[in-house]
Design goal:
Blueprint (H helix, E strand, L loop, with lengths): L4 H9 L17 E7 L3 H14 L4 E4 L15 E2 L8 H13 L1 H5 L10 E5 L2 H17 L4 E4 H7 L14 E5 L3 E2 L2 H14 L3 E3 L4 E7 L2 E7 L4 E8 L5 H6 L8 E12 L7 E3 L6 E4 L4 E12 L7 H14 L8 E11 L6 E4 L5 E5 L9 H14 L13 H4 L16
Parallel strand pairs: 1-2, 1-11, 2-8, 4-13, 11-18
Antiparallel strand pairs: 3-7, 4-6, 5-6, 9-10, 10-11, 12-15, 12-16, 13-14, 14-15, 17-18
Helix pairs in contact: 2-7, 2-10, 3-10
Bound molecules: flavin-adenine dinucleotide (FAD).
Length: 416
């Protein structure tokens, strides 16, 4: 069924009884050409573009839980292309372009809202760094506007401009940055993949990876063994665990990241705003809730829930930036599992096992990467070659030293 205004009108007249499920619930077959492990944003977009761009439809996506319940439905929904280093720049630029056509492409309302992202700076040194970043974004063909203090005040009059501890010097505005509804992105790609014949198998956990003579031959699952010629590991925070099934030890640590949402308020914050003196970023959802987050909980864990010291830290940063936020009541908070690489950049690459591919290491930023990650992973799995915009996301860069140290934090996982 194609979604349209006419369909909404028609279904409204007939009691909304004609809507069909967005995707099928097939039983897993014993044999597929390609298996994708993980039904998050990246796994689903990979399956979608395998079918759409490469005509490979004999594909199963194996998801141990429900589609949309992983990090793809837990993030703070920020979409941007404001990276500084070659490697990341061209990749995220490509992703943003895909975002801009995504709703038409998927025939699904993912509520992509380019409301503008403002990164604040609080010192001369930070201003220089953001000016360089803005220039790098221009060179890449993306948009950036350097704002002085008064420029920021015009956009964000509610910030605390009087405080002396973290004075606001200005901000870098990325007008095409914004947000999207996170779980709708998973549902849209799921529906799109399903319509092209991909089997989405929920409640099917992969428990082993079968390898013979250095070649992948299939996977073991809680619903029986499945043979496959190609297998993609696309499991975000669980990458280390699943790769271990193929005997690999990845340069990845899994950490918790928390997010928060307040009660619904009248429209108040019209951009995505990011604090330069602490890890704090905020936007307002279409329902009115203030959605915000901060830093990692600083220890490795697979628990998708956070702890109070980081809650306190995030609230303090919010209060320092916009004291009015103290009047809002927090409705709920949650956590997700981040797959952190030593250089803060991702991996889309072959593995030493023939036919086994890896898409991982998305750190804090994998939601905005969903379209391009799927596009490039599908290209890699279909052709055996890295896509040009993802060619630097190599697994062996941590051995060869060709890292993309976007965050400038080196090998300290807990600083990313
Ligand atoms: C609080 C928070 C805020 C964030 N904010 C942002 C943001 O504002 N902008 C941004 O760009 N990014 C953000 N991120 C990061 C982003 O959400 C992730 O990088 C991205 O969603 C990860 O990729 P995914 O969607 O494929 O992951 P997931 O949705 O986690 O998908 C992986 C799937 O693999 C499944 N799986 C795992 N093991 C197995 C197995 N053995 N067998 C079968 N299936 C398995 C899991 O159940 C899961 O559904 C945030 C993350 C969090 C937690």
């Amino acid at each position: 069924m194609r979604y349209s205004g006419w369909q909404v009108f028609r279904q409204g007249l007939t009691g909304n009884r004609g809507w069909q499920p967005a995707w099928r619930e097939p039983e897993p077959r014993r044999d597929y050409d390609t298996v994708i492990i993980g039904g998050g944003g990246h796994g689903l977009s990979t399956a979608y573009y395998l079918a759409k761009n490469h005509g490979i439809t004999d594909v199963a996506v194996l998801e141990r839980g429900l589609i949309g319940q992983g990090n793809v439905g837990r993030n703070t929904t920020i979409v941007r292309a404001n990276y500084f280093l070659p490697g990341n720049q061209e990749f995220y630029s490509h992703s943003l372009k895909l975002w801009e056509g995504l709703e038409a492409e998927l025939n699904y309302n993912v509520m992509h809202s380019q409301r503008g992202l403002i990164n604040l700076f609080h010192s001369d040194g930070q201003r220089d760094a953001f000016a360089r970043r803005g220039n790098a974004m221009h060179f890449q063909g993306d948009d950036a506007i350097l704002l002085d203090r008064e420029g920021v005040r015009r956009h964000l009059p509610y910030l605390d401009f009087e405080q002396t501890r973290f004075p606001i010097y200005g901000g870098l505005l990325h007008p095409r940055g914004g947000t999207a509804r996170h779980d709708a992105v998973a549902w849209g790609y799921a529906r799109g993949a399903d319509r092209q014949g991909v089997d989405l198998i929920q409640h099917c956990e992969v428990t082993g990876i079968d390898i013979r003579d250095g070649r992948v031959t299939g996977v073991q699952t809680t619903r029986g063994p499945i043979r496959a010629r190609r297998v993609g590991i696309v499991v975000a925070g669980r990458s280390g665990q699943v790769a271990a099934m193929a005997g690999m030890r990845l340069p990845i640590e899994s950490h918790i990241l928390q997010a928060f949402v307040t009660e619904g308020l009248k429209p108040l914050i019209h951009h995505v705003v990011s604090f330069g003196m602490g890890h704090f970023y905020i936007s307002q959802s279409d329902k009115g809730g203030l959605v915000f987050g901060g830093d990692l909980d600083f220890y490795a864990s697979y628990a998708a829930r956070g702890n109070l010291p980081m809650v306190e830290h995030v609230m303090e940063a919010g209060m320092a930036l916009m004291p009015m936020i103290g009047r809002a009541r927090v409705l709920r908070s949650w956590g997700g599992i981040m797959d952190m690489t030593p250089d803060g950049s991702p991996i889309i690459d072959r593995t030493p096992v023939e036919g086994l591919f890896l898409d991982a290491g998305w750190n804090y930023g994998g939601f905005k990467a969903v379209p391009a990650s799927g596009w490039c992973m599908a290209h890699l799995m279909a052709t055996g070659e890295s896509h040009p915009v993802a060619r630097r996301f190599r697994l062996d860069r941590f051995r060869t030293g060709h890292v993309i140290d976007e965050e400038g934090t080196g090998s300290q996982h807990n600083l990313h």
